[in-house]
Design brief:
binds fe (ii) ion; seven-stranded antiparallel sheet; three-stranded antiparallel sheet; Jelly Rolls; 19% strand; 8 helices; alpha+beta; 256 residues
Length: 256
């Protein structure tokens, strides 16, 4: 892991990290390939060829089934935490909450039905700024096959960066002001990205001839403030220090 990993994340709002092996991505891919075979009779070895096996009308049904399978008994979020807990402890400390259900993104070439215009999760939904997103590419992601973002370093202060919202809202589809400053993530397995979802980010129509498959899941320090997405409902405890565990046991005892 990069030594200044958390410095980069906190200054740019996003950092990539190359994992030591393909264990995580291979397990996730194997699960997806298995469901495609068993539920849809689609035999595929390279996920970025997926669009050749599916019609646009079938896509949502497949996406739903895959997400259900990945999230059954928190399979994907438990696996992701088990493989990344060393990295996450550096960033968040030992007390960590993770989103119960991971998000699955499938962007087939030319598909405009699942676009996310530029947004910031803290502005545009009830997410806490203490959350970070783990973004896991299952295929090689680049250009419009990937996600775009605007690093915090685009502005000299976080205050000015967040104030961009006023102008961005005038044309979310194609914001003139930052047109030349947004960057598409260039990333492939076994690398992952971690980012503050306060950054401006989104996707465009995939103009490559390959399908993007990626997963995203949110994590945060267990004891930081929550907004709409609550512990027990949206998040679950992934890791807890011995002292915090002891303290919570004491608290239960004295409140009985
Ligand atoms: Fe987002």
């Amino acid at each position: 892991m990069n030594n200044n990993f958390d410095d980069v994340l906190s200054s740019r709002g996003i950092v990539t990290c190359k994992l030591d092996n393909f264990d995580l991505v291979n397990s996730l891919k194997a699960k997806i390939i298995d469901v495609l075979q068993n539920s849809f009779k689609i035999s595929i070895s390279e996920l970025d060829e997926f669009h050749k096996f599916i019609t646009p009308t079938e896509l949502n049904n497949v996406r739903l089934k895959l997400a259900l399978s990945l999230n059954e008994k928190s399979y994907a979020s438990d696996l992701i935490y088990s493989k990344l807990n060393n990295i996450l402890r550096v960033l968040l400390g030992p007390d960590i909450a993770i989103q119960k259900n991971v998000g699955l993104s499938i962007q087939t070439p030319g598909d405009s039905s699942s676009l996310l215009h530029i947004h910031s999760d803290v502005y545009d939904s009830d997410c806490s700024p203490y959350e970070i997103v783990i973004w896991i590419p299952l295929v090689n992601c680049y250009s419009t096959k990937s996600m775009f973002y605007l690093p915090f370093t685009h502005c000299e202060s976080i205050g000015k960066y967040l104030k961009l919202s006023e102008n961005l809202r005038k044309n979310l589809e194609d914001p003139e002001e930052i047109k030349n400053s947004i960057e598409f993530m260039d990333i492939k397995p076994p690398s992952i990205a971690l980012f503050s979802h306060s950054i401006w980010h989104g996707n465009k129509v995939n103009e490559t001839n390959e399908t993007r498959f990626s997963l995203n899941v949110r994590v945060k320090n267990l004891f930081t403030p929550y907004r709409g997405k609550k512990l027990g409902d949206f998040f679950k405890i992934a890791g807890i220090s011995k002292l915090s565990k002891l303290a919570s046991n004491i608290e239960v005892e004295i409140n009985e």
